[in-house]
TrEMBL record:
This is UDENN domain-containing protein. GO terms for cellular component: cytoplasmic vesicle. PROSITE patterns: DENN. Residues 106-117 have a biased composition (Polar residues). One of its GO terms (molecular function) is guanyl-nucleotide exchange factor activity. GO terms for biological process: regulation of Rab protein signal transduction. SUPFAM superfamilies: Quinoprotein alcohol dehydrogenase-like. It comes from the Eukaryota. Residues 137-573 form the UDENN domain. Residues 99-138 are annotated as: Disordered. It holds the Pfam family Beta-prop_LRRK2. InterPro entries: Beta-prop_LRRK2, cDENN_dom, dDENN_dom, DENN_C, DENN_Domain_GEFs, Quinoprotein_ADH-like_sf, Tripartite_DENN, uDENN_dom.
């Protein structure tokens, strides 16, 4: 809670930041920056205002006529008083300011009535036929007197704080306090409450709660035919013929920046009960209640309730559920008492489609509750259009306003509403929804046509939602039957509040689940790095029956803002729940990671089904536990602030180091960015593929453009394309015309593939069409040949019969030939395969021959590399190369392109795998081929490749939350740029979610099944279910180097490069104690053995300490006589020995574990040893050459030598003793999965196979 208030004996600092010097008029008052109430207005008519007919309609009438029609006229309301945090102003019968407000800590010596000052000269007005009235009070007058004044201009009024309420809001309040205008009543009506939501010109919302009550007056027809009005306090029963009793309406309106509708309703109800018992002291009560509300802070989002007391009434202010959601102080279940679940969904659909909606009801309070509830339901979508929950009788012309809006009015105006065509009319009293027929020749923009049908919410999501509504049944009376009656009003209040909170939580979660089910399909269509949303791909993934709904929704402004938030990676309840239910969506086939999909995925045989509905209602909903912060008594502002701070200190008794940690929590980074002047990200996002620049582009712009156009997502490929297309005279830029022609050629090929009609059962699963030839002559007759990523097939002309020619993996040779005939020679392409059926295939491709030869050869080479190196990403990259080569050749036919003259050379430069295979880089040794199972790329789609610094495998387990399903086995990759990326080890697909740490990730450790600890600049606690960081341990001042977990799992040990070790209690995440090896001993690695001893590896030696920090022994590098001592980069404790690898030489030093004596040095043919791992009875040694040497520890002999990386081995781990996983430096940046069980253990001669 933020409580901002500053005072001193010498000066006072008010809200506006102005320092007030002491003087006779100065009081040491304080104000809250986040107060519950901003202002209270008293509006209505009384004996001072008189009875002024509305809009002057009765001014020509005589006093007798007005007296006889006094109950039938409508009168003009007036502002009677305005009370803020710093001022109390009275406007009738003339303007006055209360000098004793706000109250101070010094008791007043004089009554406030005696100190009231006349702030405007009261002019002598002739007595008219109507009762005398004060000067007209406009909104400008009110806001003028509530604003602060310069120090030198204090003669008329006291200085006060700026009122954060605009003049637009004040103007609206006086109108909407009485939506049905002001009348005089013969009998006293019941008091009533209604709520207002007012929006100023800047779009800022202000909330108001209005309570209307009635005062009895005697209206007497005077001798001069004027009306004399007096307050009837005695309620006399005897009236003469010239007297009548009338009840005058007055309205107390509390204005707030937070939507605490029901809390302010309780406070106003208590206020009116006191006013009706003592009407002469009404303004005393108004001042007391207003000042209490303005000194009450609003609780922040979370679980802290603020409890305030006023006149023995205790009111609780509940916090917002989370920071991105507004306060919910309304009973959300009232919607379900008014509408059937099917109608609720229809209304929701109309709101999501931004229709012109009018709610009608005979209950004004219910209008605001229902409309506010629907705005709460659609979160995270945000309504940004005209929003008027209550239209007064004088403002019904707003219904004909153009554009999108949401308004409410009384049912008595239904005949007027029916005249406006295209409106969606929601009748709250009858629980129905209808659409007015269009009356104009040209329908309004945004109105519903097509037989006035609102598309239904998708059936699968709607059915799950309706099941929840049917099961829960939001009926307070049903739960009220079995409980005994409460005869204590406070008990009754608490019960109803508890049930309302329960209903609100259930409804809020049900709609959150519905919104996630409706729009989870957008996630695979987002490319955050280039701020692109593929709307076409999203719509293609929708089932036919649901398309009308989504085709309308995706065009709305709310949907665009929703996509904008996703591209900004906004973390809110929607994103958190979508991420929690993502495992279930994957198993249902409804979510596919966009990073693993080819750029031509839309040509798949079956569209990717992304819209999956999942319900976890009963398992995910747990009661929220609140803490109550009770405000101290409000005697004066100085003692109130002091007592509040004392209570806060007692409530949050934290040590100083924890207080500093609170100040470093989430949110301060954003403030620092603002203060340092960092420019925010661009608010726009790319929705279509039309992103071509009209000027020459440099490499940065070229990479961005090609990515946005979805031509390639591999940085190395885009860079090769850029250098191939560069202008000869300007090698740093690509000509815009060349870029335009390249893209048009790419799209042309895309359209040709789309137009090809292929039988549904002919294409295989996930088979992509890459190229379709012109009509050519072949060995199979006249027709077209088609290249896919899996095979080549023939389409016979005329019959459209399809016939497979050869699978790409079976192609043995591609030859360009020339066949001579009597008349001319033609260019042909000969394709041979090893499937035994083909025997060669010849196609007369003529001018297309060279292009087809390149494309087929590149696709074949990509398949060959993928199978030889077990790298599945090679196929996807080869597909991109084929498409780009085709676009280069097509666009190169234009003489104005830069690559026209050297077209063949440019096209060949993009055939990466053809060159790769020709140079023999795909050939691996026999031992490598036997053990290597697969290679995956954590750097896929990244602009720069990063080092795989550390690896961790976690087996699958059952999640603690049913909503998250079972957690699959995962491979965690700590990257050099500080990211922790995760692979699903069941199919080795890269998860879209990652965790960002600081600088680089140095270590990873699994803590039970629920957490992974990542070491960086601090220890980041990652939740394994959601792959999100929920806490950071910042006790280490230096880079964390390693983490070790005790065998029991209760404790963890961490080390840093500054030589400090910390023992942690895992359950509470608290540091138990800290000890140090010395600042000159930078700990590189940490190991905890079965004796509960910590082995700490430094650059120079290895040190052993006990779990409580007691130093035991050390292992020193043996003296060699060299001027420069070797540095130890890794250590391994195995079978009574200590192995340590040297950083800059191929040596492994071996000591005896017990005696610490040097035993041997193993020479390894490499530049340095980077990591070692014990796998079964073998030692795997990763080197800086990218080679892995496998040793037998009993005799220290080399057993195998394997290599699958082009850079240093930087990380290794095991996966349940079945696999060994290795990661390499940034030059390679890939992860290899090895199977040590693939080797036959019965080999008697462990021969070493060379590379």
């Amino acid at each position: 809670m933020e409580m901002i208030a500053e005072t001193s004996e010498e000066s006072v600092v008010m809200d506006g930041g102005e320092e007030i010097c002491p003087g006779p008029m100065t009081k040491n008052g304080m104000t809250m920056a986040n107060r519950l109430a901003e202002l209270m207005l008293v509006v209505g008519i009384n004996d001072d205002t008189g009875l002024i007919p509305l809009n002057g309609r009765g001014l020509e009438k005589s006093g007798e006529d007005l007296f006889s029609n006094i109950y039938f006229e409508e009168y003009e309301p007036h502002v009677l008083a305005a009370v803020s945090a710093t001022k109390a102003l009275y406007f009738q019968p003339y303007f006055m300011e209360d000098p004793d407000y706000p109250p101070t800590h010094q008791p007043s010596q004089q009554s406030s009535a005696g100190k009231q000052q006349d702030l405007s000269k009261r002019g002598q007005r002739p007595r008219a036929k109507f009762a005398p009235r004060g000067p007209s009070v406009s909104p400008a007058v009110i806001t003028h007197h509530l604003k602060k004044v310069e120090p030198g201009k204090m003669s008329a009024s006291m200085k006060g704080a700026d009122l954060p309420i605009s003049e637009d809001v004040i103007r609206s309040l006086t109108t909407f306090c009485f939506p049905d205008n002001v009348k005089v009543y013969r009998e006293c009506p019941e008091d009533s409450v209604h709520f207002l939501v007012l929006t100023d010109i800047a779009g800022n919302k202000t909330f108001a709660t209005c309570i209307t009550f009635y005062k009895p007056y005697i209206i007497e027809l005077g001798s001069k035919c004027n009306l004399v009005i007096t307050l009837d306090l005695k309620e006399s029963s005897s009236l003469n013929s010239r007297e009548v009793r009338g009840f005058f309406p007055q309205c107390c309106c509390v204005v707030s920046k937070a939507p605490y509708f029901y809390a302010t309703k309780e406070i106003l109800s208590c206020l009116i009960s006191h006013v009706e018992h003592d009407m002469e002291e009404m303004y005393t009560f108004v001042k007391d209640f207003t000042y209490t509300m303005t000194m009450c802070p609003v609780p922040p989002a979370g679980n802290v309730i603020v409890e305030m007391s006023v006149y023995n009434l205790s009111v609780m202010l509940y916090p917002a559920e989370c920071a991105e959601k507004p306060v919910n102080d309304l009973p959300l279940h009232l919607v379900f008492l008014c509408f059937h679940a099917d109608d609720v969904l229809r209304i929701l659909s109309a709101v999501l489609m931004e229709q012109r909606i009018v709610f009608v009801s005979s209950n004004y309070a219910l209008l605001t509750i229902i409309m506010e509830s629907f705005l709460y339901y659609i979160l995270p979508f945000r309504w940004r259009f005209t929003y008027v929950p209550i239209l007064s009788a004088t403002s019904l012309e707003l219904l004909e306003a153009p554009g999108t809006f949401m308004m409410g009015c009384h049912t008595r105006h239904l005949d007027i509403v029916a005249l406006v065509g295209g409106l969606v009319v929601v009748n709250v009293d009858e629980g129905t929804l209808s659409v007015n027929p269009e009356t104009c020749l040209s329908p309004r923009r945004g109105s519903i046509t097509n037989s006035n049908i609102i598309p239904d919410v998708p059936q699968e999501s709607a059915n799950l939602f309706k099941k929840i509504c049917k099961r829960v049944r939001f009926q307070l009376e049903l739960s009220d039957v079995q409980r005994p009656f409460y005869y204590d009003i406070e008990q009754e209040r608490m019960f109803r509040m508890k049930k309302c909170l329960q209903f609100n939580a259930e409804i809020s979660f049900a709609f959150l689940e519905l919104m996630v089910n409706l729009f989870r399909g957008v996630m695979p269509c987002l490319r955050v790095e280039v701020r692109q949303f593929n709307k076409q791909s999203f719509l293609e993934s929708i089932e036919f029956t649901d398309k009308p709904f989504y085709e309308k929704v995706v065009t709305t402004d709310m949907f665009k803002m929703f996509i904008e938030d996703r591209l900004n990676e906004r973390v809110d309840q929607w994103s958190e729940y979508e991420m929690k239910t993502r495992p279930w969506a994957k198993r249902a086939g409804g979510l596919v990671d966009s990073t693993s999909i080819s750029v031509r995925a839309k040509h798949l045989k079956k569209p990717l089904r992304k819209q999956v509905s999942i319900s976890t209602f009963s398992s995910s909903l747990t009661p929220k536990v609140f803490e109550v912060f009770s405000l101290p008594p409000l005697n004066d502002s100085r003692s109130y602030i002091r007592n509040s701070i004392c209570k806060l200190n007692k409530a949050f008794d934290l040590p100083e180091i924890d207080r500093e940690d609170i100040l470093r929590r989430k949110g301060l980074n954003h403030v620092q960015e603002l203060t340092q002047g960092h420019e925010p990200r661009s608010p726009g996002f790319v929705e279509t593929a039309q992103y071509l620049k009209m000027t020459s582009v440099c490499l940065e712009e070229f990479v961005e453009t090609v990515s946005l156009l979805a031509m390639s997502n591999d940085y190395d490929t885009i860079q090769r394309l850029f250098h191939a297309l560069c202008m000869p005279m300007r090698p740093t830029h690509v000509d815009h015309y060349t870029m335009e022609m390249l893209y048009h050629a790419y799209v042309e090929n895309e359209k040709q593939c789309e137009q090809l009609v292929v039988p549904e059962d002919f294409l295989k699963s996930e088979e992509l069409l890459l190229r379709v030839s012109a009509l050519v002559k072949t060995d199979f007759g006249n027709g077209r040949i088609v290249l896919t990523d899996k095979r080549i097939f023939f389409l016979k002309d005329g019959t459209n019969a399809f016939r497979e020619v050869v699978k790409v993996r079976n192609i043995t040779s591609v030859e360009k030939q020339q066949v001579d005939s009597l008349l001319y020679s033609v260019k042909t392409l000969f394709i041979d395969g090893d499937n035994g059926k083909l025997g060669g295939f010849t196609a007369v491709l003529k001018e297309e021959r060279n292009c087809w030869a390149m494309l087929v050869e590149e696709m074949r080479a990509g398949r060959l590399v993928a199978e030889a190196t077990k790298d599945v990403t090679a196929v996807s990259q080869a597909i991109q190369n084929v498409l780009l080569v085709d676009a280069i050749i097509r666009s190169g036919q234009d003489e104005n392109t830069t690559h026209h003259r050297n077209l063949t050379q440019v096209a060949e430069s993009m055939c990466y795998f053809t060159t790769f295979v020709a140079e023999g880089h795909h050939k691996l040794s026999q031992d490598t081929m036997l053990a290597l199972q697969q290679r995956v790329d954590p750097n896929i789609g990244q602009r720069e490749r990063k080092t795989v610094e550390v690896l961790l495998y976690t087996p699958g387990c059952e999640s603690l939350h049913v909503s998250q399903g079972n957690i699959p086995p995962r491979l965690w990759c700590g990257m050099g740029d500080g990211k922790v990326k995760v692979f699903d080890a069941t199919n080795w697909t890269l998860e879209k979610t990652f965790v960002q740490t600081k600088s680089t990730v140095t270590c990873l450790a699994a803590v039970g099944d629920t957490q992974v600890w990542a070491g960086s600049q601090g220890i980041f606690i990652i939740d394994t279910a959601t792959i999100s960081c929920n806490k950071t341990l910042t006790d280490h001042l230096d880079l964390v180097s390693d983490i070790a977990i005790s065998k029991s799992g209760r404790h963890a040990y961490s080390s840093c490069v500054g030589g400090v070790l910390i023992k942690w209690e895992v359950q509470t995440l608290t540091a138990l104690y800290t000890f140090s090896l010395g600042a000159d001993r930078a700990i590189r690695s940490l190991s905890l053995n079965e004796d509960n001893q910590l082995w700490c590896g430094t650059w120079e030696s290895i040190h052993v300490v006990s779990a409580d920090g007691k130093y035991l022994q050390s292992f020193e590098y043996p003296a060699t006589g060299k001027s420069k001592q070797e540095q130890l980069d890794c250590l391994l404790v195995v079978k009574g020995e200590i192995w340590a690898g040297c950083r800059r030489s191929g040596q492994i030093v071996v000591w005896d574990k017990k005696t610490a004596k040097y035993k041997d040095t193993i020479q390894v043919e490499c530049r340095g040893v980077s990591i070692m791992l014990c796998v079964g009875d073998k030692i795997w040694v990763g080197t800086k050459d990218g080679t892995i040497f496998i040793y037998k520890p009993e005799n220290r002999e080399l057993w195998k030598k394997i290599k699958a990386h082009d850079d240093a081995i930087r990380a290794m781990c095991t996966a349940e003793e079945r696999y060994v996983i290795s990661g390499s430096g940034s030059k390679d940046g890939k992860v290899a999965i090895w199977s040590p069980l693939a080797y036959s253990m019965e080999l008697s001669n462990p021969s070493i196979h060379g590379e």
